[in-house]
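Fig. S4 source data, part A: sequence.
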Amino acid sequence: MRLSLFTGVLLLLPPLAGATEFSAELYLDARYAIASGEPSWLDQGLGKGRYGGGRNGGSNSDFDLAEVAFIGHWQPTWDLKGFLHLKHDPEQNSSPDVVEAYFSYQAVPRSAFSYRLKAGLFFPEISRENTAVAWTSPYTISSSAINTWVGEEIRTTGLELKVTHRSDYGELSLTGSAFAFNDPAGTLLAFRGWSIGDVKVGARGDLPLAQLPAIGPQSSFVPQVFEVKPVREVDEKLGYYAAIDWRDRRALQVGALYYDNRADPEDLEASQYGWGTRFVNFYVELDLGDDITAISQYMRGTTNMGGRVANGNSRQIDVDYAAGFVLASKKMGPYRASVRFDWFEVDDNSNVAIDNNNEEGEAYTLAISMKVRKQDLIMMEFLYIDSERAARRSIGYGAQQDNKLFQLSYRFRL
């Protein structure tokens, strides 16, 4: 039976126009960037940033409208809400595309417990950074490696139930979800590795892969097309995630989430493989007073695809991955200054002689922003990424690369 939840959710969206309470806005991000190092992964290289250097090793500069987004809110009753996020950016192949489209229902609490049900297409509550409009970060232009990957490949198309208990000590929440249409998630981490940027894939979107000799339609090892469509159902099986969160009455928030898309690594549908992807994500967020916020996240997981290799303990592509970051941010009236340190790694467990996906790296981010109107923001960011990935040699680059990226962004809302 073909899963059709996503289609059903989209069919429910037209009534928004006749909603009893509806608000909408446009979000635009005008961007100037100067980048050095190898070409970006978006240009089918293995560079780590959204923007990269030239093929000859020189720097590149870009000025573009990095994102145009439409945000719609519908609230026909106190306890029922609808949300729609459409976007266009220069890299996407289908425009406009749906980033999120869901309904949420939260009844009036009649005790210490409250319940919220979401249905549709949405981000799991993994990111502690991307809390501003259009799933952007109020701290930096480029998200951490963890949350960059969430924006690129992780999306829930299904149901989520969240139960919260409030007491004099704080709030304890338990969340569970069943979802479909996320079977190719993990492809980027295996064939490209981690990145640090702000690309968000849409429901119809695809993302490019470098033309590595070990993969590609003509490869005898992995006949993978040079693109991944993360929001895709391959094996007709539901995935799930479960989370626990704690918020005290003062300054501390902590939580953990376990995700398993339960994809069949041997299934192929419309040139997209199922990738068996699982991970755990932990976070700590602290309000240190004096408008200082500290956030840390850690993720560790595994993803695999293809048949089992001779020893039977791993598959044709089988990698472990991990990443973490620490961010500190200080708000000073209309200004904000943020710093972040990232580290990331990928460990390849199979066929390294043919397709070496090992990787390690670290990154440093400094961002300064200023509010110019109530909802408009100017942000400047400097990002330095140092990484080593052996697969770069197969496309003519050294395994170790430094990427430097300066970005100036003007975010405005209409």
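Fig. S4 source data, part B ends here. The domain at 30-66+101-413 is CATH 2.40.160 (Porin).
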